[in-house]
Structures
1.
Amino acid sequence: MIEIKDIYKSFGDNEVLKGISGQFKPGVTNLIIGGSGSGKTTLLKCMIGLHHPEKGSVEYDGREFTTMNFEEKIEIRKEIGMLFQGSALFDSMTVEENIMFPLNMFTDQKRKEKLDRVNFCLERVNLSGKNALFPAELSGGMKKRVGIARAIAMNPKYLFVDEPNSGLDPKTSIVIDELIKELTEEYNTTTIVVTHDMNSVMGIGDYILFLHEGKKFWEGSNKEIAHTDIQELNDFVFASRFMKAAKDKF
Amino acid sequence: MNFTNFGRYILLLKAVFRKPEKLSIYMKAIFKQMDFIGVGSIGLIAIISTFIGAVMTLQIAFQLVSDFIPKTIIGSVNRDSSILELSPTITAIVLAGKIGSAISSEIGTMRVSEQIDALEIMGINSPGYLILPKVLAGITMVPLLVILSMVLSIGGGYIGGTLSGAVSAAEYVQGITTDFNPYTIVVALVKAFVFGFIITSVPAYEGFYVKGGALEVAQASTRAVVVSCITILACDYIVTQLLL
C-alpha cells in the first residue's frame, strides 16, 4: 500500500499541490484524475521521488520515502515499475534490450533466464516475437505495451502509469487499460494511474482521487463518481455531451 | 558558466563518481565510448594535424628571413609548437565540436524524452550510467589522439617542408631531433587529460539539465561547444603557467 499525507509542492510562487492525502491499496486500480494543470503528474513525480515535496510524506508499506537517502531510495525504486506518458523506451536499444535492461542491471541471472523473462513479459503484453524491433519501428500502442513489459520485468510491487492513453485510438486505449487492470489483479501490485481519460475512469477506476487546482476534491470509485453533486467533479467528468447523456442513464 | 551552474556541475560530478551498480555493464559502455571518441575521431585528427604541421613549416620558413638562422630551427620550432600547444589544443577544440555536441544532444534528448527519468525510477544512478563511461573514455582516448596528432603534425611538417623546398629533409630531421626536451610531452599529456575531462563532462552537464524540447536540446548543444572551448583555452593557460 502507498499512503501520501499532506503533500505540498510549489514551483517558485506557483503552489501546485496544496495538502494532498490519500491511500492507494494493492490489487486495485487507483486513478488520479483532474484537468490539465491540476497537479496530478506533479503528485505522481513527488510519489516516485522525481520531485521533492516541501511538506508531507509518502509511505511505501510503512516505509517513509521522502526522508530516505539516495541508497535507501534506490532499494524502493527497485520495487517500482513505471510506464511513462511517452513510453520513455531507450531508443538506441531493441525491444528485447529495453526489457532486459533492468534484469541486466540488478540480477545475476544467466542470459537464457533473462531471455525467458523477456519473452514472458512480451507474451503478457501480446507482443511475442517483436524482440528485435527498435522503438522507432513501433506504433504508439506497441510502445506503450513494451513500456508495460519493461515495467513488469522485475515483478514490481508498485506500478505507476502516467497518461497511458494519450495519443492512442479508443480501441487501443481499452486494450492498454484492460492490460493494466489484469496485471494489477494478477500480481496484486499497488497500481496508480494518472489520467484524464473518461473511458479509463469508468472502465478501470476502482479507487479514484480527483484533483482540482492542487487540492483533493473527491475520492471514491467509478460506481460512485456518477452520483456526486460536486460541481467541479461533474464539470470535469461530464464535460462532453456523450458523458452527460450517459450520466442520465446511470 | 556562472557560480550556480558551476555548483550544479560539481554536484553532478559527485553523482557521476558514485559506485557503479554493475561493473560489467559500465565496462561495456566505456569501451563503446572509447570507440566513439577515440577510434571514430582518428581520421579527422589525422587530416587536421598533418595539414597544420605542413602549413606551420611553410609559415616558419617564410618568417626566417635571416641567413644567420640555420634552417634546422624550422624543425625545432615546429616540433615544440606541435607538442606543447597545437596538438593538444587544436585536437581538444576539434573534439569539443565533434564529441561535445554529440554528447550534449544525446543526453539532452534522453532528458526531454523521459529516458533519464526512466533510469532513475529503475533505481539506476543516471549521471553515473550516462556520464562516467564518457568521462573515462575521454581522459584515456584524448591523450592517445594528442600523441597521434603530435606525430602527424611533425610528419606533416616534413612532407610540407620537403615538397615545397622550404627545408631539406636532412635539415628538418636534424631540427626535430636536436635539443629535444621530453618534459614537453608530459606537459602536453597533462593538458590532454584535462581537456579530455572538459570535452566530455561539460557537454554532459549541459545535456543533463536541458528543459523543454528539440529547440532547447539544440541550444544546449551549441552552448556545450562554446563553454567547452572557452574552458579548454582557460585551462590551457593555467596548465601551461603551472607546468612550464
Note: Residues 22-243 of chain B form one domain.
2.
Amino acid sequence: MSDRITLTLRAPLARALDADAIAPDRLAALSAREISALELWDGRTVVALGDVFTVSGDRSPSVLLEGDLAQLHGVGTLMGGGTLEITGSVGNSLGARMRGGAITVLGSAGDDAGSAMAGGSIVVAGNVGDRAGGALQGASKGMTGGEIIVRGSTGVEAGARMRRGILYCASTGAGAGAGMIAGNLIVSGTIGDGAGAGNKRGTIVALGPVRVPPTYAYACTYRPPHLSLMLLSLRKRFDLLVDDAHVHGLFKRYSGDLAEIGKGEILEWQATR
Amino acid sequence: MDIRGVQIDDTFAEAFGMRGVRIIITAKNQKWARESANKLTGFATSVIACKCEAAVERELTPAETPDGRPGISVLLFTMDSDSLPKRVIERIGQTVLTCPTTACFDGLQDFPDRIAIGKPLRTFGDGFQGSKMIDGQRYWRLPVMEGEFLIQETFGKAKGVGGGNFLILAESADAALDAAEASVDAMAGMPGVILPFPGGIVRSGSKVGAKRYKTMIASTNDAFAPTLRAITKTELPEGVNSVLEIVLDGLDFRSIAKAMQVGIDAACRAGVHSITAGNYGGKLGPFHFHLHKIMSGDVEDAPKVEAPK
C-alpha cells in the first residue's frame, strides 16, 4: 500500500474517453496491475487504463491525476470517499452522483460537474461548464448534498434543480438556480439573467450584481443569520476569501419564484458606507 | 491540611449525576447576548424547586462563535434525560427566541447523544420557517418581527455532575462573603463548570428533608447555622459566625474538581477559619470530591456510576 496512487497521462488525448472507473474509493482496493486493467471507454471501444496512464502506487484512497484531461469525462462518478486531485483541467461529469470524499481540480472542469451529487466536495480552481450541480438528463433533482466550490465562473444553469447542498462560484451564466427545489447558490460576482426561475425553496445569494426576475417580490433588507454561519464555514473549510462585509452585511430579500410556491429567495448584498 | 492558615477538613463533597447541555447564544453585541443569557438562566438555582440548574459558563469572543458574533455559553442541567429537552425548549423559546438579535447554537457538537431543540421550536414559524444544512447540521430559520431567528436543530447531551460543593466557615459574615466572592471570581470562566446560585454563592445550604415538616424535600442546614449553635447538634467550630456555600455543576468530574481546587485556594484568606464540604455519608450520589485529594492536585475522575435515567 502506498501513500498515493498517481495516474499520469502518457500522451495528449485525441478523443474523448469515458473514465467513470476512476474514483479513489474503488482504486483503494486495487493493486497497480488491477488499476492498469480498469476499462475506459472510447466510444464503443474499451481501452485499458494502463494504456492511457502510467500508474504508480496502489491500494490508497488518495489519487493524483496528472496531465491535460479536458477530454476525460466522468472522473469521480459515484465516488464515495477518499481524495482525488487533478493537476490540470478535466472533462464533463466530474464527480457525477458522488456521495463523499473530496475532488480538487487545479485547472477547469467541463459540463455537468457535480451533477446529482449527494455528498463530499468538489473544488475547482478555474471555471466549470454548464449545469454544475444540476440534474442528470431527465431527472427531477440536481445535487442533493455536498459542496461545489468554483473559484472561477460557471456556465449556464448552474445549480439548476438542486435539492440541497452549496454551490459557490465567482460568476454564473444564464439560468442559474433555475427550478431550484432547495439548497444554496452563492455567487461572489455577476449572476447571469434568468436566475432562480421556477425556484421553490432555494436560496440564491448575490454578493455581486443580479437582475432579479419580475416573479420575485421584495420583502425586506436585513442580516440573514444563517448566511454568516454559512460564509464563515466556507471560508474556514475551503480557504475562500470571504469578506467580513458580506458575512455581517445587509441583504435585500426577494421572495420567489412567485410563479412557483414562492418560498425561495434571492438575497442581494447591499454595500454600505 | 492547612492553606495560609485556613484548615481544610478531611472530608468530601458528594455529588450526583445530571444531564446537561451547553447553549451558545450569539447576538449583535455582548450586551444582548448577556440579556438573553441572564433571562435563560433566571430562576435556575436548584432542581429542588426550579426543575433545572443553569448559569453562564463564560463569555465568547466573535472568533469562538459559529456566526462570528459576540456570544455567551450557558450550561443547563436537569436530573434526568426526559426533562432536559422540555426545560431547554421552554427556556430558549421564552428567553432567546424573544431577545433581539440573538441566534442559538449547540455547544456540544461532538456529543453523539442528541436532543431535538430547534426542531420543536420551529413550529413557532407557523409553516413559514425554513431550514439550512451547514456542515452536516440542520439549522432552522424562524421568521420573527425583527427579522429572523436562527437555531440549531439538535443539541448534544452530556452526562454531567451536579452538586459539587464546599463550605466557607468564617469568623464573620463579611469575611465569609469576601472569601466567597474571591472564590467565585477565581473560578469565573473555567470551562465546563457553572455556579448556579446568585453570584455563585449559597447562604441557605440545606439538609435533605426536615425534622418538623415531613413533606419538605429540603430544609435549613441547622448544623451549620450559627444562630442555632446552642440548640442543635452543631458542626461549627468555635469562632465561626457565618458560613457560605459554593455549589458547582459541571460537564464532568474533572472540570468540577479543577474549579474546586482554584476556588478553595482563593477562599483561603484572612477571616476564614476552615473549608469543609457537604455530604450524606455517600448515600446521595456516586461522585465524591475529597478536599485533601483535590487540594493535593489529584483532580481525576471518581468511579464511573450511571446517572439516573
Note: The interface with chain A takes residues 66-69, 103, 130, 132-135, 139, 141, 147-150 of chain B (CB under 8 Å).
